[in-house]
Fold this sequence. Notes:
The complex is a heterodimer. Chain A is mostly beta strands. Chain A has strands at residues 4-7, 10-14, 19-25, 32-38, 44-51, 56-59, 62-67, 72-77, 86-93, 100-102, 106-111. In chain A, strand 7 (62-67) and strand 8 (72-77) form a beta hairpin. Chain A starts with a strand and ends with a strand. Chain B is built from no helices and 11 strands. In chain B, strands 2, 4, 5, 6, 9, 10 and 11 form a 7-stranded mixed β-sheet that branches. Chain B has a 4-stranded antiparallel β-sheet with strand order 1-3-8-7, with no helix packed on it. The radius of gyration of chain B is 14 Å and the shape is globular. The N and C termini of chain B lie far apart (37 Å). Chains A and B meet through strand 4, strand 5, strand 9 and strand 10 of A and strand 4, strand 5, strand 9 and strand 10 of B.
Amino acid sequence: KQEVTQIPAALSVPEGxxxxxxxxxxxxxxxxxxxxxQDPGKGLTSLLLIQSSQREQTSGRLNASLDKxxxxxxxxxxxxxPGDSATYLCAVIRGSNYKLTFxxxxxxxxxx
Amino acid sequence: xxxxxxxxxxxIKTRGQQVTLSCSPISGHRSVSWYQQTPGQGLQFLFEYxxxxxxxxxxFPGRFSGRQFSNSRSEMNVSxxxxxxxxxxxxxxxxxxxxxxxxxxxxFGPGTRxxxx
Lengths: 112, 117
């Protein structure tokens, strides 16, 4: 059974700091990994999707890496801003199964 | 292009009642998935539909059911509501390149918040 763990559960940083969020999964036979952000009481916004054959993806200040063999992914946020405050979730899909298995998320607070 | 829409956004029901939630995917997307989000369990997969067929189902009791229409809109139904069904219900849509593909980004709607009293 696939299990996804995100560390830390919560993180508070001053504005401008670079930070890394971690995601680990137990079954390396994944099809892809997706990072989302969720604002309080809202739905999920897709940030980055990494196919199993890829090592990283970048979008603006965000960079996500994937190491399938070790079952790990990281989300790097450069020059953090108060608007980045949200819960960040990673999720994996295994094979042709459309089921996303989510971690519990990291609650990020960026202080002005 | 309009995003995924869900109706209603908020719902209050009492135990024993049933409820139907609706999801309209992004135009052209043929796959719709449903998730339940609670503070204790996080996000859990309910089921996924593609071209009106349920392809995958999570570990939820039979009280939870769904369907998809020919225009890809989807509904989920929960019968005999229990207090523990209180949650945020999210749907996601995607557009696989092939009927068996799952590599594409999934886009989520704003969710329906259900409160069972």
